[in-house]
Amino acid sequence: MKNEKKKGRGLFVFVCVLTFIAAFIGGVVSKVAIKPSWSKKYSVQLTDEIGTVHKDFSYGEGAAHKFDLYVPADRSRENYGLVVYLHAGGFTSGDKAGDAEILSWLCSKGYVAAGINYTLRTDDNDKSVYSQSMEIKSAMPKVVEEAEKLGYHIDKMAVAGGSAGGTLAMLYAYRDAAESPVPVKMMFEAVGPSSFYRSDWDVYGLDQNTAESKEAAAGLFGIMLG
Hints:
Blueprint: H1 2-33, E1 51-58, E2 66-72, E3 80-86, H2 100-108, E4 112-116, H3 129-149, E5 154-162, H4 164-176, E6 184-190, H5 211-225
Parallel strand pairs: 3-4, 3-5, 5-6
Antiparallel strand pairs: 1-2, 2-4
């Protein structure tokens, strides 16, 4: 009798575990394979009638110092707005190629859209949110310059991004807008919000015990917190 009860409990636990695994796998698959209906509004297949993507412009000497430009097919306008969208990845992963869908959609709406890579933080380098934000700052004039060369005069811009990219966008909008090559009219972030508390940023490289990192952190948060 006891053995039968043990077997029954064991079978019940096994079924529960199996159900959990199946539900978990099903959830992951459905999230990847099934897109919500609202996402169709923001999806577009980039064609010659909509626009063109120009890949891997350089803005510096580093391997990651590259950006892509998505330019609309309509070249009749005197001025164009630029939207820069920075990729997500927790400051340690990701690539501009992962945002091709949203960049194509922005292009379809008549904007010049740019995806910019930045040097990712690893266990083998000293990169940080600060160094990445400075790379983005250095890229902006080059983005505008290349757009102008392609025949698109930029008179204003928005800067945006997902998660880590959204944080870098926010830093540019709050800290560097005064030095932007064109006026920054808007900033938005996907997968936020970002933290304004300095202590929350230690893990991203601002905890390095150097005079440079301390000065950079003090200046950065002094500006953001007013």
